[in-house]
Amino acid sequence: MNSSIKAKLFTNWHTMRRVALSIGIFLAVMAVWYQDILTGLLSAFFVFQAVTNTGCMVAQSCGIPERNEIQPDTDPEINYTEVK
C-alpha cells in the first residue's frame, strides 16, 4: 500500500471522523437488518467520508482556503473639494 494512502487512512482520527464512522456502521447494520438499499447507500456514504477523511464533517474541509499572497492596494486615492 502506498505510504500516503496509509497515512491518510491511519492518521488524524478526530471526533467527527469517529462519529461519521459510527453512524456509517450503525446504518450498515440497520440496512442489513431491514434489507433496505437506500440505508445501505447512506451508510456507504458515511463510511467513505470517515475512511478517506473527506466531506463537510471534517475540520475546515468545506471552508474557503485562505490566500497567502498579499493583495495590492487597488483603492485609488480620492480627492475631495469642499464647495461653499
Offer a quick outline of the entry:
This protein has helices spanning 3-10, 15-34, 37-52.
Overall 3D form: elongated
Radius of gyration: 24 Å
Strand content is under 5%
Would you report the number of β strands?
0
Question: What can be said about the biggest beta sheet?
Answer: none
Structural class: mainly alpha
What is the helix/strand order? Answer: HHH
- How widely separated are the two ends? 79 Å
Overall mean pLDDT score?
Answer: 81
The helical percent reads 40-55%
Number of helices: 3
Organism: Gracilimonas halophila
Protein name: DUF2892 domain-containing protein
Keywords: Membrane, Transmembrane, Transmembrane helix
Structure, explained:
By secondary structure, this protein is mostly helical. The protein has a domain at 3-52. It has three helices and no strands.
Question: What descriptive keywords fit this protein?
Answer:
single chain, 84 residues, mainly alpha, elongated, transmembrane, transmembrane helix, DUF2892 domain-containing protein, membrane
Helices and strands in order:
Layout: H1 3-10, H2 15-34, H3 37-52
Helix pairs in contact: 2-3
